[in-house]
Amino acid sequence: MITNEQAFDRARAVLPGGVNSPVRAFGSVGGAPRSFVSARGPYVTDVEGREYVDLVGSWGPAILGHAHPGVIGAVQDAASRGLGFGASTPGETELAELVRDRVGTRYLEKLRLVSTGTEATMTAIRLARGATGRDLLVKFSGHYHGHSDGLLAEAGSGVATLAIPGSAGVPDAVAAQTTVIGYNDLDAVRALFEARGSEIAAVIVEAAAANMGVVPPAPGFNRALTEIAHEHGALVILDEVLTGFRVSASGWLGLDGDYEPDLVTYGKVIGGGLPLAALGGRAAVMDLLAPLGPVYQAGTLSGNPVAVAAGLATLRLADDAVYAHLDATAAALSSAVSLALSAEGVAHSIQHAGNLFSIAFRETPPTDYAGVKAQDAFRYPPFFHAMLDAGVSLPPSVFEAWFVSAAHDETAVSRILDALPAAARAAATV
Ligand code: PMP
């Protein structure tokens, strides 16, 4: 048997930082990341054979819990018929129909399947530029939309965790095509559109922000944003990569959808744990994509049949009972976290966006990235490590949401509850 430290040392020699995605490196919490070998239901198991209750859920996809037999069966069945053909399959049409029907043709008439959330948002932006003939993109600070050049300025997720303003290697000319403004600030939105409205191709927004910790949109924010953008002939790209099919059967639009974004992006749950993502919108916009239109996009693995099988099985199994369980579990866990922190006198607030939630170590809930940064973030590493020592795997950054699943039963939840008092004490005494 090897230890997690040995696994990490070996990885570091051949993988930059020992990881293939930065947040996994425990950069802000310290210590050697756990190296996992298997997962089942609400649990993950590391190279040392230690089992943890998992609240990362593969960063979102594992809505049913890990290795759900219905999903694994569908994947095995698809794999036995070939891993991919680089050609059309009936399954990809079925998945697109299922998504369209669940979300509704008011928002989605056509979809294109891609492999990652990054590709989905990148393509949506190109499409918006192609549709409007304009270049400028508006994004919100603290929002994360993947790692393409134009989207890293003041981004959330790993960019926030590493406390960097953006990324090296992005040409100034590309960065200049993105304007970043504060979240939940309609005055800033109005002012920007009044000053530069005719240059703006699109505004991209997380349906509910969850990559700087969870910061829900103020009531009516998404609707007002859409109205302002549309008044100026700009498109709205609603990024549901994280919220899609997680916060409800039809995503954030199912909870707060009294507006019509022009394009919607999906990832994570839609692929059931395999690399699959999508963008969709009205046919008039989507048909601008090649081969029908002038906006080019392609992918060797797009609509991969094994990934499509995982996505179809996951979406079909995610019924109303699953969402009711996620909501109840998230509510129970978040109030237990809050009680434990209060008992130790730790200033905190818990933010929710449906069943997504996270802690901010400050008295009042932050509403934007500046507010998120103004918290006692130093309390999170000891909290995180106390939980990990007690067998609970949390996201290794205070700027990430916690993910529950349908497999988090009473046993798993009580293991989390048992671990909370000592973790709250660790957060209090740091
Ligand atoms: N958009 C959002 C809202 C996300 O949360 C993420 C990933 N966390 C992405 C886009 C990028 O997706 P991927 O990591 O699959 O490229």
TrEMBL record:
<dbReference type="InterPro" id="IPR015422">
    <property type="entry name" value="PyrdxlP-dep_Trfase_small"/>
</dbReference>
<feature type="modified residue" description="N6-(pyridoxal phosphate)lysine">
    <location>
        <position position="268"/>
    </location>
</feature>
<keyword id="KW-0413">Isomerase</keyword>
<dbReference type="InterPro" id="IPR015424">
    <property type="entry name" value="PyrdxlP-dep_Trfase"/>
</dbReference>
<dbReference type="InterPro" id="IPR049704">
    <property type="entry name" value="Aminotrans_3_PPA_site"/>
</dbReference>
<dbReference type="InterPro" id="IPR004639">
    <property type="entry name" value="4pyrrol_synth_GluAld_NH2Trfase"/>
</dbReference>
<comment type="subunit">
    <text>Homodimer.</text>
</comment>
<dbReference type="InterPro" id="IPR005814">
    <property type="entry name" value="Aminotrans_3"/>
</dbReference>
<dbReference type="GO" id="GO:0042286">
    <property type="term" value="F:glutamate-1-semialdehyde 2,1-aminomutase activity"/>
</dbReference>
<keyword id="KW-0627">Porphyrin biosynthesis</keyword>
<dbReference type="Pfam" id="PF00202">
    <property type="entry name" value="Aminotran_3"/>
</dbReference>
<keyword id="KW-0963">Cytoplasm</keyword>
<keyword id="KW-0663">Pyridoxal phosphate</keyword>
<dbReference type="InterPro" id="IPR015421">
    <property type="entry name" value="PyrdxlP-dep_Trfase_major"/>
</dbReference>
<comment type="similarity">
    <text>Belongs to the class-III pyridoxal-phosphate-dependent aminotransferase family. HemL subfamily.</text>
</comment>
<protein>
    <recommendedName>
        <fullName>Glutamate-1-semialdehyde 2,1-aminomutase</fullName>
        <ecNumber>5.4.3.8</ecNumber>
    </recommendedName>
</protein>
<comment type="pathway">
    <text>Porphyrin-containing compound metabolism; protoporphyrin-IX biosynthesis; 5-aminolevulinate from L-glutamyl-tRNA(Glu): step 2/2.</text>
</comment>
